C-alpha cells in the first residue's frame, strides 16, 4: 500500500516538471525513425524554426553520445550534449541532455520520444522531464521550450514528407 502511495506521489510530482508535445506525421514510422536516428537526416530538421545544425557526434546506441551545435537565427551557437539511455526500435528513444544517465540530477532534462504507427502515419510524442519544476518553467519562459519543441516536430514532419 505504501508503494502505491509513493508511485502516485511520484506521478503527481513529475507533472509539474514535464512538457509533453505530440504531432501526427504523414509518413510511415520506419521513415520517421530513420530521420530521428541517422546523422545524415537529423542535421537537416533538428531544432526550432530558423536554426541550423553542426553535428559533431551521433553514436546511436544505449550509452552512446550525441553532440551537436544548433546555430540560432540570432547568430548565437547553442551546443548540446546528450547520452542515449534507452532505445527500442522503432518505438521509443530516451536520452539525457546535459547528464550521463537516467535520473542524473545534473541533467538539463531527460527526453523520451515515442513513435506510434497510426495507419500509414506516425504519431510522435515527446516528453521532456526536468529535474525541478523551476527548471521546467525557466525552459518554457526563457527559451520557449514548448514553442521550440512544436516547431521541431513540424520541421521533422516537413523533412520526412520531402524525402
Write the layout of secondary structure elements.
Blueprint: H1 2-15, E1 18-25, H2 29-37, H3 39-45, E2 52-58, E3 65-71, E4 77-88, E5 92-97, E6 109-118, E7 121-129, H4 133-143, H5 145-162
Antiparallel strand pairs: 1-7, 2-3, 3-4, 4-5, 5-6, 6-7
Explain the overall architecture.
This protein has 163 residues and is of the alpha+beta class. It is 36% helix and 36% strand. It has one domain (2-162): START domain (Alpha-D-Glucose-1,6-Bisphosphate, Chain A, domain 4), CATH 3.30.530. It has helices spanning 2-15, 29-37, 39-45, 133-143, 145-162, and strands at residues 18-25, 52-58, 65-71, 77-88, 92-97, 109-118, 121-129. It has a seven-stranded antiparallel β-sheet, covered by helices on one side. Helix 4 (133-143) crosses helix 5 (145-162). The chain is globular and about 40 Å long. Residues 26-160 form the Activator of Hsp90 ATPase homologue 1/2-like C-terminal domain.
Amino acid at each position: 500500500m505504501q508503494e502505491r502511495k509513493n508511485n502516485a506521489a511520484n506521478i503527481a510530482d513529475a507533472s509539474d516538471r514535464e512538457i509533453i508535445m505530440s504531432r501526427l506525421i504523414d509518413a510511415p514510422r520506419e521513415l520517421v525513425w530513420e530521420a530521428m536516428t541517422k546523422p545524415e537526416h537529423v542535421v537537416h530538421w533538428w531544432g526550432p524554426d530558423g536554426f541550423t545544425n553542426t553535428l559533431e557526434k551521433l553514436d546511436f546506441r544505449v550509452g552512446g553520445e550525441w553532440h551537436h551545435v544548433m546555430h540560432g537565427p540570432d547568430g548565437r551557437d547553442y551546443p548540446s550534449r546528450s547520452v542515449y539511455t534507452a532505445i527500442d526500435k522503432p518505438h521509443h528513444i530516451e536520452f539525457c541532455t546535459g547528464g550521463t544517465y537516467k535520473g542524473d540530477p545534473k541533467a538539463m532534462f531527460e527526453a523520451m520520444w515515442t513513435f506510434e504507427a497510426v495507419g500509414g502515419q506516425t504519431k510522435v510524442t515527446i516528453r521532456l522531464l526536468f529535474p525541478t519544476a523551476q527548471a521546467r518553467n525557466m525552459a518554457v519562459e526563457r527559451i520557449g521550450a514548448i514553442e521550440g519543441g512544436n516547431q521541431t516536430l513540424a520541421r521533422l514532419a516537413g523533412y520526412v514528407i520531402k524525402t
